[in-house]
Design a protein that fits this description.
- By secondary structure, the chain is α/β, with parallel strands linked by helices.
- Helix content is 42%, strand content 14%.
- The strands form 7 sheets. It has a 7-stranded parallel sheet with strand order 8-14-9-13-12-10-11, sandwiched between helices. The chain has a 7-stranded parallel sheet with strand order 17-18-16-19-20-15-21, with helices on both faces. Strands 2-1-5-6-7 form a 5-stranded mixed sheet, with helices on both faces.
- Helix 14 (419-422) links the parallel strand 17 and strand 18.
- Helix 11 packs antiparallel against helix 17, helix 13 (381-391) packs across helix 19 (573-599) and helix 15 (460-467) packs across helix 18 (550-560).
- It is globular.
- The termini are far apart.
- Mean pLDDT is 86; it is low at 810-877 and 909-914.
């Protein structure tokens, strides 16, 4: 039976009268205790009081409904108490929800029921949110008091006092934000001010500039007005080397507009697009821009979004530094009835597609929103376009995604700027997130329904934005994956957990680099823009919580947007089965053809590749040529359809990890040091911690080495979960599960078997243990596994990578275990051993040549240096006893080495050192 915890017996009595089981505690902190010493200092972790723990049974739904208050210090104290007690209840296995009483004269639930009636409380009870969602809610609210509060369908004319410098506009989608901002642009121009429009998508920037009468940055040189009125730019380009040649000092006393500011800031702080290469420079310029504008007498900054929050406002205020301004907040509380939203169940969108088929068959026009566009995705724009064209040859279909809008041969080329004129020509429009924000589809009487397939790759707000592009009230139909497919950082759902993991990882990476390089990294600014990192942590924790409860979060957001969510009926088995077959056939044929086309594309020179990479509008042929050239340089083998598919499946990072864990181990430190120094150079000795940590592989490789993962990769050796080494392996992995989560993003728990843990970690290098069967006596049978060497050409790729790294390696000697020492550089390269390896030789011969060269170089120059090594490092130094042998299954060379304590077989990293 669900229970609700409240403050005081009167509240519990009121709920009991209303038919709810309730438990009263005498204060918000009374449900738990924290051990303290005689001075009141906490000396232990909080724990539930025994009386309350008795009710904390596995699976029980527990609600917390404390009094509401408008005093900030009281609100914070109550929030802390709810979080602490709620976490303790969740740890006991309870399902925890929070019931928020609305602000008003009624402080407690008893007064609320008397004033509003039991039905009002029933509604609150039924819409209570899970603890995780409730905890992040503070980061998504706008609590600054509004200077202008509205409740109207359209914003209309609003007057902002002349002296206001930071204007915040929060208004529902489709209520005229862009129209009002356009009037503010006109006012700025009338006063001789230029306007800078900052967005996170090029198509959005172009559309806004078209509405505001300002050139986008790509049009500046071709238009006679140039930058006279200002220009629009993607936030990625806020640096001196961009096409904009951006200089923040040019914008004092001018106007900045950041539309969809929440998405712009998140793109800036976390995106892996072009901005990642110069993120530190862009962040520095944004901070300087904010200070220049807010510090000038006439400058203004507008932040606009339906989802603008305290997080966005506080971020800009923190960037302003010493320039203190009070935000001028405009809030439109209008909540229109958005219509019905039909929610389709199932593990895939087959029921939704079956319903869309029926809607198409009876006529009408429809917009289908997809979260994916690649040909490999069965439910992406390309595969579904192919499927619908086959099923309905006469249907007029338009596909809008990042490829079609930039392909001169496609009907959607350049369509974003004039969508309302184009869309009426089509029966079915299939769109990717290119149609996510900044676009208003205002046509009336055309679309009969908006359909959405959301696979958990977009943030929740992006889903809501996409469904709201059509302003007309027509039915929405959605299928949403139950949970999301990606996380931010280590996946923590608290800002503290996210930030702490980044701080620890940065310190560890710099310490490892210092030891490996024998270099001084003390000059690195590890505290670059803490205000930006704090904002990254806030946004990241929100997204991680929403990804864990993706469907729930999307549906809750749509209810907030005014939709009535209705569970849709499932299609019958025959219909849904036919959908699966047709989608599968279309996607497989389309993807097979694309992989083949990429493999058959013309080869490109480096100059031609660079030209294509810099080109924005590309045909399909050009995209295929670019992809082939990039794959050829990445893997250094012939590009085949199979290689294209593997790369689409994320093969490269897995293969790279395996290479540096084995044959390429000696090059890893140099690789990480190069990346670190490049980032430090670009950031002028400052680093953006999330990017810096992503770029370092050494901690992950060291972790896999310490777990001794490669011990499982000996063929024909049968493995059982009860084997001593498997039990020890699991104990080690469980002990270090937090470190594994931070550096490998792999979740380890005590509930997993040793084999399951090994499989999860082996997946990081795209290997696995094959199931042999259940062996043993009938009463004691166990599942048995063994490693089977994959035939995937990784050996050939590793050879090419080894050649590459050998050719670029600088002459230095590194001692493993993070101890470095300098050796004399002697030109003793033997003339009989070639520096490059040819594909005509066997893998053993090729690998041995490179290794033998290292041995000879090392042994020729060893002399007295060997004694110095032994005296410096001790018994870790040994001498090879015989030639190394290639273990193709472990992907590494091994050799017998005589150490002071005896002879043993070791990975040849040790030998290379000597």
């Amino acid at each position: 039976m669900p229970v609700t915890i409240v403050e005081g017996v009167k509240k519990a009595g009121a709920l009991l009268t209303a038919g709810y089981a309730a438990i009263a505690i005498p204060g918000v902190n009374a449900g738990y205790r924290t051990p303290t010493d005689e001075y009141g200092t906490a000396i232990g972790k909080p724990y539930l009081i025994p009386d309350l723990k008795h009710f904390a049974t596995l699976g029980r739904q527990v609600n917390i409904c404390f009094d509401q208050d408008n005093k900030p210090e009281t609100v914070q104290r109550v929030r802390t108490a709810i979080s602490r007690m709620g976490r303790l209840l969740v740890n006991e296995g309870c399902s925890l929800r929070v019931i928020d009483l609305p602000l008003g004269a009624e402080k407690g639930v008893d007064d609320f029921i008397v004033a509003k009636g039991q039905s009002a409380f029933d509604a609150l009870y039924n819409t209570a949110v899970a603890l995780e969602l409730w905890e992040i809610k503070l980061f998504t609210l706008l609590t600054y008091p509004p200077a202008i509060a509205l409740n109207q369908r359209f914003l209309g004319q609003l007057l902002v006092p002349e002296g206001e410098k930071l204007i915040i506009l929060k208004a529902p989608k489709g209520t005229g934000k862009i129209e009002w901002l356009a009037t503010e642009v006109v006012k700025a121009h009338d006063q001789g001010q230029r306007v800078l429009i900052i967005t996170h998508r090029i198509q959005l920037g172009e559309a806004l500039c078209n509405r505001f009468g300002v050139n986008y940055v790509t049009e500046v040189r071709m238009n006679e007005t140039g930058t006279l009125l200002g220009y629009g730019v993607c936030v990625d380009s806020l640096h001196q080397e961009s096409q904009a040649r951006f200089n923040p000092d040019d914008w004092s006393n001018h106007v900045i507009i950041i539309d969809e500011c929440d998405q712009v800031f998140w793109h800036l702080l976390n995106s892996g697009t072009e901005v990642q290469k110069r993120r530190v420079s862009v962040l520095k310029n944004l901070k300087q821009l904010v200070q220049n504008v807010l510090g000038s007498s006439q400058g203004k900054i507008y932040l606009s979004s339906a989802d603008v929050s305290d997080t966005d406002v506080k971020y800009v205020l923190s960037l302003a530094g010493e320039y203190r301004v009070n935000p001028f907040v405009i809030v439109n509380n209008y909540r229109h009835v958005a219509g019905n939203c039909y929610n389709y169940s199932g593990s895939n969108p087959k029921n939704l597609i079956a319903a869309l088929d029926k809607a198409i068959s009876i006529g009408g026009h429809h917009l289908l929103c997809c979260s994916a566009q690649k040909a490999k995705s069965k439910w992406g724009t390309q595969a579904l376009e192919e499927r619908f064209r086959r099923k309905y040859p006469e249907l007029r279909i338009l596909r809008i995604d990042s490829e079609s809008v930039a392909d001169p041969s496609q009907e959607a080329f350049g369509c974003i700027a004039h969508l309302n004129e184009i869309l009426t020509q089509y029966d079915l429009v299939i769109a990717s997130p290119s149609l996510e924000t900044g676009v208003s589809i205002d046509i009336r009487g055309h679309f009969d329904g908006v359909w959405g397939i959301f696979q958990g790759v977009q943030p929740v707000n992006s889903v809501r934005q996409m469904l709201a592009r059509v302003r007309e009230t027509v039915d929405r139909h959605i299928w949403v994956r139950e949970w999301g497919m990606g996380v931010v950082g280590n996946g923590s759902t608290t800002i503290g957990g996210l930030l702490r993991s980044q701080h620890v990882a940065t310190q560890a990476n710099i310490a490892l680099l210092s030891a490996a390089d024998n270099d001084d990294y003390s000059f690195v600014d590890q505290n670059f823009q803490p205000e930006s990192l704090q904002t990254w942590g806030k946004r990241g924790s929100v997204i991680n919580v929403e990804m864990r409860r993706y469907r729930e979060s999307v549906l809750a957001g749509l209810v907030e947007d005014g939709y009535t969510v209705i569970d849709a009926d499932d299609a019958d088995d025959d219909e849904s089965g036919a959908v699966i077959e047709s989608v599968k056939a279309a996607s497989e044929q389309l993807y097979t053809a694309e992989c083949q086309a990429i493999a058959n594309s013309d080869e490109l020179s480096q100059t031609e590749l660079k030209k294509l990479q810099d080109k924005r509008a590309k045909t399909k042929t050009e995209r295929h040529q670019q992809r082939k050239a990039e794959l050829s340089r990445r893997y250094e083998i012939d590009v085949t359809p199979d290689l294209v598919e593997k790369d689409d499946d994320g093969w490269y990072p897995q293969l790279r990890m395996h290479y540096y864990l084995t044959l390429g181990r000696e090059f890893l430190m140099n690789r990480d040091a190069k990346r670190a120094k490049a980032q430090l150079e670009a950031g002028e000795n400052s680093v953006w911690k999330p990017d810096f940590n992503k770029g370092q592989l050494l901690p992950a490789v060291l972790l896999l080495e310490n777990l001794n993962l490669l011990q499982f990769l000996t063929p024909d050796v049968q493995l059982r979960g009860t084997d001593e080494k498997m039990v020890e392996f699991k104990a080690l992995a469980v002990t270090h599960r937090r470190v594994i989560k931070n550096y490998l993003n792999v979740s380890i728990s005590e509930k997993l078997t040793p084999i399951a843990i090994a499989q999860k970690l082996l997946e990081k290098i795209d290997l696995k243990l094959d199931y042999v069967g259940r062996l043993g006596k009938r009463e004691n049978r166990e599942c048995v596994y063994q490693f089977v060497t994959p035939d995937d050409k990784r050996d050939l790729i590793f050879e090419r990578w080894l050649n590459r790294d050998e050719a670029t390696k600088s002459e230095s000697v590194s001692v493993s275990n993070n101890i470095s020492t300098t050796t004399p550089v002697i030109d003793t390269t033997p003339q009989d051993i070639p520096q490059t390896l040819t594909p005509l030789e066997s893998p053993t011969a090729q690998g041995w040549k490179g290794l033998k060269l290292k041995m000879r170089l090392g042994l020729d120059s060893i002399g007295k240096f060997y004694q110095q090594l032994v005296s410096t490092i001790g018994e870790a130094i040994g001498v090879a006893d015989g030639e190394p042998y290639w273990n193709g299954y472990l992907g590494q060379w091994q050799v017998c080495v005589n150490f002071a304590h005896g002879c043993r077989s070791v990975v040849c990293d040790w030998l290379m050192v000597v």
